[in-house]
Amino acid sequence: MATNEEILKKIREKFGDAVLETSDALGEAAVSVRRDVIVDLLKFLREDPDLAFDFLMDLCGVDYLEMGGFERFAVVYHLYSLKHNHRVRVKAFVPENDPRIDSVTELWAAANWAEREVYDMYGIEFNNHPDMRRILCPDDFVGNPLRKDFPLQGIGYRESFEKIDRESAQ
Amino acid sequence: MSEQNKTATRTEFSPEDFERVYDFTYDPHEERMLLNFGPSHPATHGTLRLVMELDGERIVRCVPELGYLHHGFEKLGEYRTYNQVVTITDRMNYLSPMNNNFGYILAVEKLFGIEVTKRARYFRVLLAELSRIMDHLVSLGTWAIDLGAYTPFLYLFRERENIYNLFELLAGTRLTISYTRIGGFARDRDIPPEFFPQVLKFLDGLLKTVDEVERLLLRNKIWLNRTKGVGIITKEDAISYGITGPCLRASGIAFDLRVAQPYSDYDEFEFDVPVGENGDVFDRYIVRLEEIRQSVRIIRQAIDRFPEGELNVDPDTKVMLPPKDEVYGSIEGLIHHFEMIMLNRGARAPKGEAYVATESPNGELGFYVISNGGNGPYRFRVRPPSFYNYQILPRLLEGQMLSDTVAVLSSLNIIAGELDR
After folding, report:
1. DSSP labels, B251-283
2. Nearest to A28 among B1, B355, B379 (CB)
3. Which of A38, B27, B29, B253 is deepest in the core (most CB within 10 A)?
4. In angstroms, how far is CA A23 from the centroid of its own chain?
């Protein structure tokens, strides 16, 4: 089991210029990186024998509109190593004007649906994804519900219903 | 409202569209057909839909469609205070609400930096294990009834009813208990004295039922034929697909978060982690059945060594509601109460983020909560075990017979509420 400092040090050594920030807050190793190195970084984390992060536990998106991050969106990867029993969180920041990032479905089959969910909820597209469709919302849904500027009540179909007044109905 | 939004129309269903979406061409000279399994099929336990391309009775292709029970819980969570979100977590895996309450509140307490009392930690373990038993009972019962064994279903559901009665005694509600709060539990009264004797009485009956169900199924020829060698998950697949919980352990990987990364004093309890060999449907059944027995062991230990002292943290830490007599008896208590429940006040977490993973009955249930210093989560993400476990289904079904669908689907124990959130 590598300590959080060791994990973060290894990442900094290998991907020094792409690392935006590392954190050890609340006992959780976390690293923020530029989006262009994400596949290389996750591949390194998975294949380095001292780290061996073989599980992609979770992949989700975050919208930093009201909070302030390096970019508007982040795609967050939670990794776990069965062999060493340690965890790390990797964040790749994605700008609002070009919301796309490379897919990691090549590395983990688990990423398939998780990336579709991020696409559905945030509108972030994943390059080289085998099946980039919406997953939870219907295919003709307009908007990305988990974006902070999407209203809580939704824009729904209610506005698009044809209005029938009393006279024409009779 | 933008012009684009106005043009959104409801999808008109037509067989041609259907064939286009799933890239299927109908040929009258072949025995191929497109089968729509669900979303309201009795064996799908909720609203799961599978679109399957069949060649005779053999499955050529299987495409799961999600989202029939999508509530937008993650969006809703961003607009609620920390304690209000507890009620949302209930409705995710509605078969074991306490495990969801438990996992969520651990993530929030990590964010707040609160250490709950030992009594609360033990009590949470006890309730989480009761809840785990409840989940496994439903899973095993419906699984058996889907494969034609009616009796185990009745036996197991009778026991589940008893757990509901126990939760009713404690929390006042049966299904959506919403029992945890930051710093402890919902009620400021102590545990009713008749609770523990009733739990112990229930456990004795439960073990008898589990033995009976095991006798009914373990040497049942039909059951064995339908489960052995069906839906095998290999170790490599299990890791690649992020499968956790009983499904992973049935494949021969002894990964249990209660042992690997103990939370809430799980390291003080003695229990075994059942592990399967082949990773087929039968192994998943054996692992689940054995986990019920291990949960009984944990509950008995928790009751034996149940710590004395306070259940909730001190109300002066300003994260919990004050006791009711203080609220009605003193102006300070009343102010404190209002400060806690008013929507623009409430307990505020420091800026930061926490990911806490707990072992729910279906696998790793992770809560990723980001705080921007407000009184509710800025981002509330759930890592649902069902979502990742379900993803392997096409791989297990393709090339198999149609009738195996039910056996494999039941063995993964997919909960639609958790899958779609």
Report:
1. TT----HHHHS--TTGGGS-------SS-SHHH
2. B355
3. A38
4. 18
Ranges under pLDDT 70 in chain B: 1-21, 25-26, 187-189
Tell me how many domains chain A contains: 1
CATH code, domain with A62: 3.30.460.80
Is position A140 within any domain? Answer: yes
Chain B (347-366) residues lying within 8 Å, Cβ to Cβ, of chain A:
352-355, 357, 364, 366
Full-model pTM: 0.88
Residue B261 in contact with partner chain A when CB distance is under 8 A: yes
The candidate with the shortest Cα–Cα distance to B243, out of B232, B233, B258, B229, is B233
Cα distance between residue A91 and residue A76, in whole Å: 4
How far does A16 lie from chain B, in Å, by closest CA? 23
> A33 lies in which domain range?
4-147
pLDDT tens digits for A78-127?
A: 999 988 899 999 999 999 899 999 999 999 999 999 999 999 999 999 99
pLDDT tens column, A15-53? 888 888 888 888 889 999 998 899 999 999 999 888 889
